[in-house]
Design brief:
nine-stranded mixed sheet; alpha/beta; 33% helix
């Protein structure tokens, strides 16, 4: 009030129940109605908060303040089904998240939430084990990854930690550990396969080595003359055509999808034929540009890399199908 702010509703964070005496005092001294003092008590998961706000009547107060009609109570049946699955898992899996920003978990917030959505869909608690790719190499990779049920190689930019990501992909590919690569993670799977299966020992991305003789990941042609990099990436929703009979087709249940992107470098189309003959399949491509969006390996329990960011579209109501199937693969791997 001293700052000139007249609140209509107070939402009060608290570790303990707020007494009627305190609610009345808050209402009186903050010049709000008694019903507009809303308790926001600590919850075991943020996904409980909608139910707690419903119990406090926040929806009714907000509708009244906005002079909107109060209709039937909100239908939270699907939400509570999700919440029940989340809080009562039948399985537990350990999934490695290999990236180079693991000290800053907010960088992977969308991925972590997508694992919660997919875990609940599988009635599975997903323990995400964060691993810094800069500290993974051929000498310690078994120690770092050996006890995991599945591994996701995360997105990112720049050269730091790249070799650790490549070594991670090699390990999970050879040891049949379920693998999921997103954006840069997908590109690392292309580089790893090119080096260790196709035999192109110097294969790389021009983002990391612009003089490599085998640029299996390269800058988009229209980006090569760009000097101002702000906003020049492939951004937003792009279409993808999926080949029938592939893992991607099984996951999505359709041959046409749209996913969100945020990147500048691409799987170099000049190497697609060689890599496909060697076993790395391009199972999804953009119909306008022909650029590869999805790669996978058939002779593997679960191996998929995507150029886009599926975590951006995952919600409680619609957990992303790749995450759902990836967690299911981790459950099966643990059982075996």
């Amino acid at each position: 009030m001293e700052s000139g702010i007249k609140a209509d509703i107070l939402v009060c964070r608290t570790e303990h129940e707020i007494s009627d005496e305190i609610r009345n005092k808050l209402a009186l001294f903050c010049n709000v109605t008694r019903e507009a003092v809303i308790q926001s008590i600590d919850a075991s998961t943020i996904y409980e908060v909608p139910n707690l706000m419903l119990e406090e009547g926040l929806d009714v107060v907000a509708l009244k303040k906005l002079d909107l009609p109060k209709k039937a109570a909100p239908d939270l049946k699907n939400w509570n089904t999700f919440l029940k699955r989340l809080k009562n898992p039948k399985h537990t899996v350990n999934i490695g998240l290999v990236g180079k920003y693991v000290e800053m978990q907010d960088c992977y917030k969308s991925i972590l939430e997508a694992f919660i959505h997919a875990g609940a869909a599988n009635e599975t608690k997903v323990n995400v084990i964060s691993l810094h790719s800069e500290y993974i190499d051929a000498m310690n990779v078994n120690e770092k990854l050996g006890g995991l049920d599945a591994v996701l190689v995360a997105p990112g930019f720049g050269e730091r930690g790249i070799e650790g990501k490549i070594e991670t992909v090699r390990y999970v590919r050879e040891n049949k550990i379920p693998f999921f690569g997103i954006c840069l993670g997908m590109q690392m799977s292309v580089i790893e396969y090119s080096r260790n299966v196709l035999g192109l020992s110097d294969a790389n991305s021009t983002e990391m080595n612009d003089t490599t003789s085998n640029p299996v990941v390269n800058l988009m042609e229209e980006q090569k003359t760009v000097t101002d990099k702000g906003g020049t990436m492939r951004l937003g929703a792009w279409n993808c055509d999926i080949k029938a009979g592939t893992l991607a087709h099984k996951i999505y249940g359709t041959t046409s999808i749209s996913e969100r992107h945020r990147h500048r470098y691409e799987f170099n189309s000049a190497y697609v034929s060689q890599l496909e003959k060697a076993g790395l399949k391009a199972s999804g491509t953009n119909p306008q540009t022909g650029l590869v969006e999805i790669v996978e390996i058939e002779d593997h329990p679960f191996f998929i890399g995507v150029q886009y960011h599926p975590e951006y579209k995952s919600t409680v109501a619609n957990p992303h199908p790749i995450f759902v199937n990836f967690v299911a693969a981790a459950v099966q791997a643990k059982k075996k």
